[in-house]
């Protein structure tokens, strides 16, 4: 086992703490409610975007559970462009700025993960909710221009396009939109041609996806080399003469990947109407396509493409000639992942966020495309996981041990200007999470963050293992740039303030540690190999002299809920209690077309043995179950099933549901309620008895 303390020392030396780090008596339940309420109420920024021709940024801020959109010039004071006042779960997303930065478009309502589904209504409004595209004009006047998502400004800023399912809408800025096209399927991306003459789109039809063009003046549609795969990430060349895109043919199972190459990079010539394959990766590592969330293909000029590839085993940004006459060259460092990347407006500099040098810390970098060495954008210990370019400026989303995600504008000579500087109340207690490294029984190296309560104690402490969801996620020793895990980090800090030792474990199949770690074999329904890492986390906790081995619990949501349930089903002798938020409990999937009946039968047997339901007879530890019944990610029936199975076995459980809530709870008050249910539950099951 190894503990990295340099990160903590640097934070302490940097004087980043505004909240209490002094030793204090553990919080009681009222103190815990005060702390978690304060942390959940802190401003949290997401959806950072920049104007293409102006140094102006916009982002969504959630504060006290209320979402609003703010905008600021690179050195100016942020100004609220919307004025919502209620924690009613109304989502704001899909933020877009006109090229000159003077007009804003955004989506109100709906769910960005399921944009063509019904709009959620967690506040139980009697009239329901709608997902609408709105604009805020330079005058400040706001308009609702239609129902849909994907707002995209034309190059001259005069027209806004958006979609709803398979329908395309166009609206002159300041006027109501009109439907101009409707096709079966879902339009999942939109991009204007550089001259504004056409709109490039991705049409998802389930079994396949196509790249198409809508010609604005002639009101006609064409498809670019339609085929049988999943085509995605279409991008115009700067001169508008070509379109690059990715074509995938995904493997039926992870056991059928050694021989194949499952994606290719294409360029379609719009002048000659011909498609050619630029490059196909060789079989092996990198033969399956992956892209950081929110990133795409980029043209550095009319002859070269930038794209993500894991050929070395790590997510890197690479470049290749669009002619298909060369081989790729990777630009970002090896042995490190990239989580976001953008090009400068002149296309000469690549900006990206990476964990180079320390896989548990993310920072923003710049790299000129002339081959010069990369440079850090900001020289401090904050975590930077996302970025945006506005005119000649770069903005990042940063977070730290005590500060939630917030926008920062990068200045010259490593200077930076926070547009928002979130501060916790002075009576909130933080500990500095320690990065720990341990090994599973099969030798896999596992990283995690250890939250150890301040102060000495002569009594053994209770402990908790926290397991993230995804499973393709990574928790960090700081507030997270994703709201779900920012909330979880806040709760882990609160649990530490109550006297629990908490270990947040980054189990195999998560991101940040390379392709082999993320795509390791036999995870989930293929064998639940990641549970070995969760069990190893508990084993590590049991070796600590300050922990009572009889009072180790576990909590997590989604895939973390699945692993929580699996831990209790397989090892109630190790895990004394657990909190399972919207987890999966029966992993059996429908038959896979293309596999024989025998292959499907064998797969289902492994899926069953990988399920918490399969070991229900061994489950005796108490559990808390929480689920929103409008969950599109994990069926609500997964939790009603588990309640029935636990009832049959006589296992004690506490059950709660949120009518009309989604997978990621949309209202802060629901997160607070759920966390306090968990806090009370663990207080009763892990701290009510002494060693």
TrEMBL record:
GO molecular function: hydrolase activity
Entry keyword Isomerase: no
Residue ranges occupied by any Peptidase S9 prolyl oligopeptidase catalytic domain in the UniProt entry: 492-686
Signal peptide: 1-24
PROSITE patterns: PRO_ENDOPEP_SER
InterPro entries with a match to the protein in the record: 6-blade_b-propeller_TolB-like, AB_hydrolase_fold, Pept_S9_AS, Peptidase_S9_cat, WD40
Record's keyword terms, sorted: Acetylation, Hydrolase, Protease, Serine protease, Signal
This protein's record includes keyword Nucleus: no
Function text: This enzyme catalyzes the hydrolysis of the N-terminal peptide bond of an N-acetylated peptide to generate an N-acetylated amino acid and a peptide with a free N-terminus. It preferentially cleaves off Ac-Ala, Ac-Met and Ac-Ser. Also, involved in the degradation of oxidized and glycated proteins.
Designated name of the protein: Acyl-peptide hydrolase
Annotated source species: Acetobacter cerevisiae
